[in-house]
Design goal:
Blueprint (H helix, E strand, L loop, with lengths): L2 E5 L6 H10 L3 E6 L2 H8 L5 E5 L5 H9 L3 E4 L6 H11 L2 E4 L5 H4 L2 H7 L2 E3 L8 H15 L3 E13 L16 H7 L4 E5 L2 E5 L9 E5 L3 E7 L5 H5 L7 E8 L3 H10 L15 H9 L7 H9 L6 H9 L14 H12 L8 E13 L2 E12 L7 H18 L7 E3 L4 H13 L5 E6 L1
Parallel strand pairs: 1-2, 1-4, 2-3, 4-5, 5-6, 6-15, 7-12
Antiparallel strand pairs: 7-13, 8-9, 10-11, 11-12, 13-14, 14-16
Helix pairs in contact: 1-15, 3-4, 7-16, 8-14, 10-13, 11-12, 15-16
C-alpha cells in the first residue's frame, strides 16, 4: 500500500481522488487551501485525509513530498516546478496534467539519475489527445505506412441543451486559466510551410469544424503544434495542427476583448472602482461618456455588434463595484465571467476531441478520423473533470504497480504509457470512434 498526495481541490481534481481510493488500497491526502473543498473530494473515505496547504509554504510542501510515494499536482502550472524539485530531492514521483515547461524539461537528466518519474501532460488536452493520436500513429506504422497530415481539435463546452448564454461557453476548469490562454501565440505546419500566429491574432481566422455527435464549431490554433512533430516522431509530416474548439461566434468576441486590452493582467487603480470604470479606461473616455461606442471603435466593431452586446450582458459596462481595486482588466473580466458563465444545477458539459490523419502506404492512401464525444453527468462529475483527472489517476496507479517505470521527464506518447491508460479509459466509458476512408 502506497501513499498519494493530491495538491489542489479545484474543478477537475475530484475524479483523481475518487478513482485512486476506489480502484486500489492506497491512501490519499488532499492538500488544498480550502479544507471544505478537500473534505468534499475525500467524502469521508477511510483511506483519505485532508490538510490545509499553501504552495508558498516550502516546509509544508517538503513534508508532504517526504511522506508520499507519488505526488499529483492539480495546481496551476506555475507551481509544478517547485513540486518537481522537492520530488527529486526525496526520490518521489510526480504526475501533472499540464504542458511541460522548459524549466521542467531541464530536470530530465537529474530525474533519470535519481530514478524519478516526472509524468506530465496526462490530462485531456494535453493527455488523452496525445495518447489517442499516438495509438493511430503506431497502427499506421505497424501497417507499413506513414502519416503525412495530422489535424487535431479539442474543446470543453456546454452540452447543446446547456448552451444557453450569449457567450456559448461555461467554465468547467480554471476560469483565469481559460482567459490567460486567450493570449497565447501559436504556430503550426500547413502543406509544408510554417504558419506563425501572434497572440493578438489568435482568434482572427477560425475554421469551421464538424464533429459527429457534437455539432459544428469554430476551431483556432492551440499553442505550438510544430513542437509535436518531434514528440510524435512525425518527421517529414506536411501538416501538423493542434486546435481548440469553441461554439460559433466565439472567436470574434474573444478577439475584440483582446484588442481593447481586457487580457492585460497588470493591476491598476480604476477611478470609482466599477466595472464601467475598467471599460471606460480601456476605451479612453470618462465613465459618464459613450463607453460602449468608444470601446467598439477601439475593437474595430459596430456598437451593436455581438462583442459589445456580449460585454454588456456580462456586465462590463455596469456601475457595479469591482471585487477589489486596484485590479487588472483580466481579473475584472474573470470576476464577471465567474459570476455569469457557470453551469446551473443539472446542466451537463461536453468534451469533443477529433483527430484527422492522412496516411500513405506503399499501395494506398487513407483518411483516418478518430473522435471522442463525452458528456458530463447531471448533478455529478463533469466530462471535463473525468477526462482530465482519470488519465492522471490511472497514471499514478500504473506508476505504483510498475507498469510505467521509465524515469525522467515524460509525456504520454510511448506504447508502454499510452496503451494501458487508453484501455482503462475505454473500460470507464471514455473511448474513441475510428473511421477510415480510402483516398
Amino acid at each position: 500500500m502506497a501513499h498519494v498526495t493530491v495538491l489542489g481541490a479545484g474543478l477537475v481534481a475530484g475524479p483523481v481522488v475518487r478513482h485512486i481510493l476506489e480502484s486500489s488500497q492506497h491512501t490519499v491526502t488532499v492538500a488544498a487551501r480550502s479544507i471544505d473543498r478537500a473534505k468534499a473530494l475525500v467524502n469521508g473515505h477511510p483511506r483519505g485525509d485532508v490538510v490545509s496547504f499553501e504552495i508558498d509554504d516550502a516546509a509544508a510542501l517538503d513534508a508532504l513530498v517526504a511522506r508520499s510515494d507519488v505526488m499529483v499536482s492539480m495546481l496551476p502550472y506555475t507551481h509544478h516546478l517547485a513540486v518537481a524539485k522537492r520530488c527529486l530531492a526525496h526520490g518521489k514521483h510526480l504526475v501533472t496534467t499540464s504542458y511541460v515547461q522548459p524549466a521542467m524539461r531541464a530536470l530530465d537528466a537529474e530525474a533519470k539519475e535519481r530514478g524519478v518519474i516526472l509524468l506530465n501532460e496526462l490530462g485531456l488536452d494535453p493527455g488523452i489527445d496525445h495518447m489517442s493520436a499516438m495509438s493511430i500513429i503506431h497502427k499506421v506504422r505497424a501497417e507499413g505506412g506513414k502519416v503525412t497530415s495530422f489535424r487535431s481539435y479539442c474543446g470543453g463546452l456546454p452540452a447543446p441543451e446547456a448552451n444557453n448564454n450569449p457567450f456559448g461557453y461555461k467554465f468547467s476548469w480554471s476560469p483565469r486559466g481559460v482567459v490567460l490562454a486567450a493570449r497565447n501565440a501559436a504556430r503550426y505546419l500547413r502543406d509544408g510551410a510554417e504558419v506563425v500566429i501572434p497572440g493578438p491574432q489568435l482568434f482572427a481566422n477560425p475554421e469551421l469544424v464538424e464533429v459527429e455527435g457534437a455539432g459544428r464549431f469554430e476551431g483556432y490554433p492551440n499553442r505550438d503544434s510544430i513542437s509535436y512533430v518531434k514528440v510524435y516522431d512525425l518527421e517529414g509530416v506536411q501538416t501538423m495542427f493542434r486546435g481548440t474548439l469553441r461554439n460559433l461566434g466565439h472567436c470574434v468576441t474573444w478577439k475584440a476583448m483582446g484588442d481593447v486590452g481586457l487580457y492585460d493582467d497588470a493591476p491598476r487603480a480604476f477611478e470609482g472602482g466599477t466595472f464601467r470604470a475598467v471599460t471606460a479606461a480601456l476605451a479612453g473616455v470618462p465613465v459618464d461618456g459613450d463607453v460602449e461606442g468608444a470601446l467598439a471603435a477601439k475593437a474595430g466593431v459596430a456598437v451593436d455588434s455581438d462583442p459589445i452586446k456580449k460585454l454588456a450582458w456580462l456586465g462590463m459596462f455596469d456601475a457595479a463595484k469591482l471585487p477589489e481595486n486596484p485590479i487588472s482588466p483580466l481579473d475584472a473580466l474573470v470576476a464577471r465571467m465567474v459570476e455569469k458563465l457557470q453551469y446551473a444545477p443539472g446542466e451537463r458539459d461536453m468534451i469533443a476531441l477529433q483527430h484527422e490523419f492522412v496516411a500513405e502506404y506503399p499501395d494506398r492512401k487513407e483518411f483516418i478520423r478518430s473522435t471522442l464525444v463525452a458528456f458530463g453527468e447531471p448533478n455529478g462529475e463533469t466530462a471535463m473533470s473525468r477526462t482530465v483527472a482519470l488519465p492522471a489517476a490511472i497514471g499514478v496507479l500504473r506508476i505504483l504497480d510498475g507498469t510505467i517505470n521509465t524515469p525522467g521527464v515524460m509525456v504520454p506518447v510511448s506504447p508502454a504509457v499510452c496503451d494501458p491508460i487508453l484501455d482503462e479509459l475505454a473500460a470507464l466509458g471514455i473511448r474513441f470512434r475510428e473511421e477510415r476512408t480510402a483516398l
